[in-house]
Amino acid sequence: MKWLITGGAGFIGTNLIKALRAKGESDIRVFDDLSVGSREDLGSACSFEDVAATDEFGGVQLVVGSIMDAPLMADAAKGADVVVHLAANTGVGPSVEDPRSDCTTNVIGTLNALEAARHGAVKRFVFASSGAPVGECEPPIHEEKVPRPVSPYGASKLAGEGYCSAYFRTFGLETVGLRFGNVYGPGSTNKGSVVAKFIRLAREGKTLEIYGDGQQTRDFIYVEDLVGAIVQGASAEGAGGELFQIATNRESTVSELVELLVPLLDERGLGPVEVMHGEKRLGDVMRNFSDTTKAKEVLGWSSETELANGLRKTVDWFFSA
Question: Is the pTM of this model over 0.90?
Answer without folding.
Answer: yes
